[in-house]
Design goal:
With about 210 residues, the protein is mostly helical. The protein is built from 10 helices and no strands. α4 packs antiparallel against α6 and α6 packs across α9.
């Protein structure tokens, strides 16, 4: 019986994953407003009722897709509890901590930046998507603040720099908007964006830099 339950749970997870993957292709390719649940279901090879069952509506699909792209998988583990984030907030060297954080932010933005543009556009026309956008922004700030507080705890912040102000600066620079502006509009290589953000934050935040 346990084996049957496990197999069914894995089948449900596989179905959810397939729905999300196909929905993301549609959202990025043609936009949120133009994408319908019928299109998502057709591309995923399931009934529309199956999409409703798993996600409730189109907003639910997009929200989960954003979570999956941000994390890199569909495991229910918050970003701040991911191994790389725990490594960054456990690193005793301030420069090393910041380097881990910015390097992994680049990896995330390479996956998620196109979808963030979709979410931002959708938030301008859909009040519920606007709530999703604000929730994402608050969580992103909270994660960056956790890094800043770690830097403060290990004595890494320069004199006069509070952890709150440091968190704001990381939030501003380690952002999908900045990443898109420089890598998409100005054609910077992602590695160049990473180096610039790390160097700028090091000079602004860290003692002795």
């Amino acid at each position: 019986m346990d084996r049957v339950k496990s197999r069914r749970a894995e089948q449900r997870r596989t179905t959810r994953r397939r729905i999300v993957e196909e929905a993301l292709r549609l959202f990025v390719g043609q936009g949120y407003a133009a994408t319908t649940l019928e299109q998502i279901a057709d591309r995923a090879g399931v009934a529309v009722q199956t999409v409703y069952f798993h996600f409730g509506n189109k907003r639910g699909v997009l929200a989960e897709g954003l979570d999956v792209l941000t994390a890199g998988d569909d495991e229910p583990v918050p970003l701040i509890e991911r191994p790389w984030a725990l490594q960054a907030t456990g690193e005793p060297d301030p420069a090393g901590s910041l380097r881990i954080w910015v390097g992994n932010a680049r990896v995330i933005f390479e996956r998620v930046a196109p979808l963030m543009r979709v979410l931002r556009d959708a938030a301008g026309a859909d009040p519920e998507m606007a709530v999703t956008w604000e929730t994402n922004q608050r969580q992103r700030h909270a994660d960056h603040l956790a890094l800043a507080r770690h830097l403060a705890e290990i004595g890494g912040l320069r004199d006069g720099m509070s952890s709150e102000r440091a968190g704001d600066l990381v939030y501003a620079l380690v952002s999908p908007e900045t990443y898109q502006l420089l890598t998409e509009q100005r054609r910077w290589p992602p590695a160049e964006w990473e180096s610039w953000v790390y160097e700028t934050l090091s000079r602004s935040l860290l003692r002795g830099c």
